[in-house]
Design goal:
The protein is an alpha/beta fold. It is about 45% helix and about 20% strand. The chain is built from 18 helices and 17 strands. It has a 15-stranded mixed sheet with strand order 4-3-2-5-6-8-1-9-16-15-14-10-11-12-17, sandwiched between helices. A two-stranded parallel ribbon has the order 7-13. The chain is globular, with a radius of gyration of 23 Å.
Length: about 475
């Protein structure tokens, strides 16, 4: 009997180390950044069983078998649709400013579609203005409404959006609504989904969270886009979830969320439509390609409209394209670079690019909220301050609420606005969308918004920061080590 127990113990020990060795090999064979791989190996070795389970759940970009198959199958039809759109040459820009040229070339080569001109764009800096404009456009919709959001929470003006959608569906407008399962969990537990479906709105819960699927798909892969499309011509996107900040996370202690949204009329709405079409097919298996763009409804002169490029990321889309776009835009800066983000946990390459910009004489400003709704990300962000400050980067902590705006402005000319945070999750994992605008008029509008943020922010002084308590530095370094996993 003793011999049997001894054999069993040796077999268990052998199996245990074989499992660790197997997972270690898997971590090393995956092409990933060295800091990320080292962080995962540390977790696995310090907390072996917990670390292995955590890695299997969150360590690899696993979309799930059905979604992966759909993602692969949709691209031939999507590519044909893009080629057909290219036949409409007048909507494509032939020239870009010097600061934007490299970025637009990158996007065209990686995504297969160039920048689109002749768009009219309005920057909405108030949530009330954005929601009221959306309610008005929904009320005027004639053919179709498509919406995708990470968070949808009832209350305030959002309830009026629901009523407008119900009215649109009842008068025959085709309405499709896709919401992230984790971000909109409260919404899906409310009566609203049933009300919308009863009225004829097609409501889909994207990337459903279920304990039964934890080993079949990565559970923290999220649909993080915020996008509205109306009649294949009007589009909205930006940092704003479908929430009224007066009714959202009031007990979080961070103040009201501050966002921006862009309202666009023009051909870029058609390009955004193919992104929604891909997301819809990946989630539901239903293929509904947007109709070709109607050149006869473009009322703006090409020279007067904004030139815009759309960048989409996530499983099934070009790998790392938004990360590349950020790097390209930062290295293009010659005079000034202003970035706003609620979550600052950059990759090593992004951190190096920002510091290099400051060190070659570019005036670099980063605006982040003073109080963050994520303690982990808040501490991890602080771990980057010393290096940024030493390079000459000006870090401003916004004190007027939780600054949720994601924006980049390069030399007052090149603007990036969308859903992407400066963290690993947005850069490498989630479904995201960013608009790239090559226009000094729009750049002026964004500069005024950022100037207002700066006026309500407190500048971090390098001398004061260097004197912070030693225990804070220890906590910062601890979370910094795990930053590749956040």
């Amino acid at each position: 009997m003793t011999t049997l127990y001894t054999v069993i113990n040796w077999l268990l020990l052998f199996g245990y180390w074989l499992l660790i060795a197997g997972v270690t090999l898997r971590v090393m064979m995956k092409r990933r950044a060295v800091p990320s791989a080292m962080a995962w190996l540390l977790v696995i070795y310090i907390l072996p069983l917990v670390g292995i389970i955590t890695y299997l759940l969150f360590g690899e970009l696993n979309l799930g078998k059905r979604r992966a198959e759909r993602s692969k199958a949709l691209w031939p039809s999507t590519a044909r649709w893009i080629e057909d759109l290219k036949g409409c040459r007048r909507i494509f820009a032939s020239e870009n400013s010097e600061v934007a040229r490299s970025l637009f070339q990158l996007c065209e080569h990686r995504q297969g579609i160039g920048g689109l001109q002749g768009n009219q764009m309005q920057l909405l800096t108030s949530t009330d203005d954005a929601l009221l404009a959306l309610i008005r456009d929904i009320g005027l919709a004639q053919n179709n409404i498509e919406m995708v959001f990470y968070i949808w929470q009832a209350g305030g003006l959002v309830d009026q959006v629901v009523e407008a959608l119900i009215a649109a569906a009842q008068r025959g407008v085709r309405c499709r609504l896709m919401l992230d399962s984790a971000g909109s969990v409260a919404f899906f537990r409310s009566p609203y989904p049933m009300r919308l479906r009863d009225a004829g709105v097609n409501v889909v819960e994207a990337l459903h969270v279920s304990i039964l699927r934890v080993f079949l798909r990565r559970m923290d892969l999220r649909q993080h886009r915020k996008m509205v499309l109306i009649d294949n011509y009007i589009a909205y996107t930006g940092s704003m979830n479908m929430v009224d900040p007066r009714f959202f996370k009031q007990d979080a202690g961070v103040g009201q969320w501050i966002d921006i949204m862009a309202r666009i009329e023009g051909p870029v709405a058609t390009a955004m439509g193919i992104i929604f079409s891909c997301d819809w097919e990946i989630e539901t298996g239903e293929r509904i390609l947007p109709p070709p763009y109607d050149v006869n409804i473009m009322p703006f002169e090409q020279a007067m409209g904004h030139t815009i490029q759309v960048i989409a990321s996530g499983p099934g889309f070009p790998d790392g394209v938004i990360h590349q776009a950020l790097l390209t835009s930062i290295y293009a800066a010659r005079e000034q670079l202003v970035m706003t983000t609620p979550y600052l946990v950059p990759s090593d390459n992004l951190l190096h690019a920002i510091c290099t910009a400051a060190q070659r004489g570019v005036e670099v400003h980063i605006i982040i909220p003073r109080h963050n709704d994520s303690m982990l990300v808040g501490w991890a962000s602080r771990a980057f301050f010393a290096e940024l400050l030493e390079a000459g980067v000006l870090i401003h902590q916004f004190e007027g609420g939780l600054l949720h705006t994601k924006s980049v402005l390069v030399d007052g000319q090149l603007s990036l606005v969308g859903t992407v945070n400066l963290d690993m999750r947005s850069l490498w994992l989630n479904f995201e969308i960013t608009l790239v605008i090559d226009d000094d008029d729009f750049g002026g509008d964004l500069a005024r918004v950022q100037k207002d943020y700066l006026a309500r922010s407190r500048l971090i002084e390098a001398r004061v920061w260097s004197k912070r308590p030693y225990w804070q530095r220890i906590v910062e370094r601890l979370f910094y080590f795990f930053s590749p996993l956040l």
